[in-house]
Amino acid sequence: MFIQRHASEKLLQLCQQFKAVAVVGPRQSGKTTLVRACFPEKPYVSLENPQTRSFAMEDPVQFLRQFPQGAILDEIQRVPELFSYLQQILDENPQRGQFILSGSNNFLLLETITQTLAGRVAYLDLLPFSLSELRQIPDSTIDLNTCLLRGAYPEIWTENIIPSDWFSAYVRTYIERDVRLIRNIENLYVFEKLLSLCAGRVGQLLNFSQLANEVGVDLKTVKSWLGILQSSYIIYLLPPYFKNFNKRIVKTPKLYFYDTGLVSYLLGIRRPEELSFHPSKGAIFENLMVLEFLKARFNRGERSNLFFWRDGSGNEVDLLIDRGLSQKAIEIKSGETIKSDFFKGLLFWEKLSGQSGGVVVYGGDAEQERSNGLKISSWQSDVLKIM
Predict the structure, then answer these.
(1) Cα–Cα distance measured from residue 18 to residue 24, given in angstroms and rounded to the nearest whole number
(2) Which of 46, 57, 58, 217 has the fewest CB atoms within 10 Å distance of its CB?
(3) Helix (H/G/I), strand (E/B), else coil: 311
């Protein structure tokens, strides 16, 4: 089953401008499917293959000589020796779109590219399916609880795999392979405990000291481990908006995951109906919507312009889209019935900032525009129209 990815247009555009493009994102987010669909004429090489990887490591010149017109090099961070030789090839050949590089380990890939290919490579972040991409799947059930439970990794939907089975294997693969590539963590059980604790803190301010105490490691270690989770596209930290409107503001990021299915799995949620009364539903829904806005940015090749705002008195806006001279304020509520307290944060923000046009994104289906200028948008709406 082929799902047209929204990022494909930007990928093709970048390849007309740059000699190489790196497609990065979580493991199993659909990077390989995307690049092979966009460039069917290019040779495809997976450096996960031990024999191929050995050839590339031992004789990089001869390995790259196989591809005079370029190629797709998948999981290229596994063979950092190739980057220096790629630099020479790209410098000597003016052709655009020669090599498509992909990888699921952002830290290792970007670190190596920065050292050797800076200025020669464009980047495109590919996250799992957006809600609008999910709707392309024939006969798929896109009710809210199912989306929160299953998340958006392509294989779960296209192969109809039970989410708990898929995430069990995913976590094991991630912990045992990807983590060891970045850091030599001896106690993987403790690292996995941190992962589960993070799932219980979705939508909350990140408290390093509290996490370190509960995991049983020092502050330096927990910060290092959280960096690993960030660089491998497991957790996403939403930064606070720093502009001070004469108020003491919070300067700590909020914690989210790149996929709600993984959150639900780590919290022990196994059926969609369990979410109807689960105390974390609101936080998981907030996570879903924050990532929808992030995916919309990434699919267009744009960097994140997303923030949240909270002052010292607890007044808060869940999401601020920074437009430079103005900010679009978004409040996120999982309830399916519109209530007056949905607007509290937006009204406070608009009075403080002098801006208008705030939107409440909620778990229901109605679309409304209130007399005070605030809009109500369904979680199923196209976020590009809100942005």
Answers:
(1) 16
(2) 58
(3) strand
Lookup: tokens for 272: 């969609």
Indicate the helix (H) or strand (E) that contains 101.
strand 99-103
The label of the residue with tokens 């040779």 reads 43
Q: Are 299 and 9 in contact (CB under 8 A)?
A: no
Q: At what angle do helices 188-199 and 219-231 cross, to 10 degrees?
A: 70
- Please state the three-class secondary structure of 244-305 as a single string: CCCCCECCCCEEEECCHHHHHHHCCCCCHHHHHHCCCHHHHHHHHHHHHHHHHHHHCCCCCC
The pTM for the full model equals 0.93
Cβ neighbours of 116 (radius 10 Å): 17
The three-class DSSP label of residue 123 is strand
Over residues 185-205, mean pLDDT:
91
Which part of the chain is CATH 3.40.50.300?
Answer: 8-125
pLDDT score for 130: 96
Residue 90 in tokens:
């790209």
Helices (H), 200-259: 208-215, 219-231
pLDDT digits 0-9 by tens, 258-296: 999 999 999 999 999 999 999 999 999 999 999 999 999
pLDDT at 216: 93
Cα–Cα distance for residue pair 228/175, rounded to 1 Å: 11
User: Looking at the DSSP assignment, which residues form a beta bridge with residue 360?
Assistant: 331, 376
* Low-confidence winner among 48-57, 74-83, 352-361 (lowest mean pLDDT): 74-83
The C-alpha atoms of residue 258 and residue 125 are separated, in whole angstroms, by 12
Dihedral sign for Cα atoms in the order 153, 158, 163, 165: negative
Comma-separated ranges of CATH 1.10.10 domains in the chain: 131-294
Higher pLDDT among residues 380 and 251, named by residue:
380
The helices-and-strands tally (H runs, E runs) of the chain is: 18, 13
Decide if domain 131-294 falls under CATH 1.10.10.
yes
Q: How far apart are CA 131 and CA 306, in angstroms?
A: 18
C-alpha to C-alpha distance for 53 and 48, rounded to whole angstroms: 7
Fold for the domain defined by 8-125:
Rossmann fold (3.40.50)
**pLDDT tens digits for range 292-326:** 999 999 999 999 999 999 988 888 999 999 998 88
Q: What is the mean pLDDT of residues 187-212?
A: 93
